[in-house]
Amino acid sequence: MDELKHECGLAAIYYRPTGESSALWPGKPDRVTDLMPRMLLDLQNRGQLAAGMSSFKPDREQLLETYKELGTVSEAFRMTNRPKYETIMAEHAGIAGVGHTRYATCGPTNRSYAQPFERRHGCKWKWFSFAFNGNLANYEQLKQEALDLEHYHLTRDNDTEIIQHLIAHALEGQERPDLVKVFTEIAKKLDGAYNLVFLNAMGDMVVLRDPLGLRPLCFATDGPLFAAASESVPLLNMGFPHIQSLPPGEMLVIQNGQLTQHRFAPARKSAHCFFEWIYFANVASTLDEKSVYLSRSRLGEELAKMERERALFDFNDGNTIVVPVPDTGKAAADAMGYHLNLRVQEGLIRNRYVGRTFIEAGNRVEKVRMKFTPLREVLEGKRVILVEDSIVRSTTLKTLLGFLKEAGGVKEIHVRVACPPIIAPCFYGIDMSTVKQLYAPKFMKGAEPTRPELAAMAADLGADSLMYLPLESVARSIGVTSDRLCRACITGSYPTEMGKKRYELELAK
Known about the structure:
The protein is of the alpha+beta class. It folds into two domains: about 10-270, Glutamine Phosphoribosylpyrophosphate, subunit 1, domain 1, CATH 3.60.20.10; about 290-509, Rossmann fold (3-Layer(aba) Sandwich), CATH 3.40.50. The protein contains 18 helices and 24 strands.
């Protein structure tokens, strides 16, 4: 509801010269990058601010060519203007490509911050392009170390440029470097989440997942065709029969047409971001062999169980309905309604045709009115159990609750959150970086809310009651043990040293 932003979505495609063929791409090998916009469209949920791709074509004067623009994938690639779209794709065609969709968790929203980032050089292995998903918790430290060097300058205030300089520095020398060693050395300096796709003017490709696996990364092959993406949906929709998750701390390298897999960082206990399953990822995705849809559905079962146990009101009175906040609350709401034997109704209809830029231009009330339409015929006089995926800042939710009562004629609104309270910032790529931004810490004194604290929050929101899921429900619903999830934002316990230090500094403010 609070429109959390996330950095970002990655994609990679390669048609390797193996002598085989792929039914998934019957076209010319040097036009395989025509698949990139399609892949990025399936990652649009991970970034709507900008989109771009870099391609490699060995017989082109510009061996690497990058195209990127502000806007959604359709807007950036001019997909509604067929001649312009075809011109863009023809000019940037290649046997390999890396792509990116962006939200801005750091840095301004101008085109220069769009990815991929390309660094041109006369030496082909020093000429590279890459895209990045994540956030470096030690960015400020790395930035200062760079600026302390004599004659050194940064042109952008973001961690992507820091990584670009680290890669460039690691590639220095007269001999063609070992890419596994290059990224092994770089990884020693990084703290946080950092998935990368990398392509150089030799035609070498790297797909890399950070040692904790904070962000998801999937890949698949079909004969000569290789593809990778932040989520499984792009690969599934392309027709790949076997999709794998890249293990944390491992990298895929394509060099001289050969695909190999390597470990670039010591094996550590994983810390998959639980928020991927409950909010960010496409509901059709499977991340680390765990279905996003089934995870959200099980969160709804947990809500139903909690509703029965606490029994704040008689929900079997024939006047109670379950209403999801679209779209991420729907799977949980459906499951909750089913297990409580309550009718689930679309009392809120989301307008999917209002552009994000237009929505951002209005004030909060206008944003809600443009984004949602309450169905008075469904809601009037009803007791509504409103299922929300999470509450971060609460600003939009407060407005929505008032709108439901005013325009929808709702009798009572009972908010049920398919997530525990967000009590701590995220330093790994979600745009909630300070405690002051968060709603729950203003009311809570302990790790989980007491009933008086819940009552105070409900009154502040304008709800008749409020309940969050308990901490243990998250791991149980996803099917991953809690010690293998990053739950820092709901526990205050961080999986990296810099994350811990930054949280201590936050609490001291």
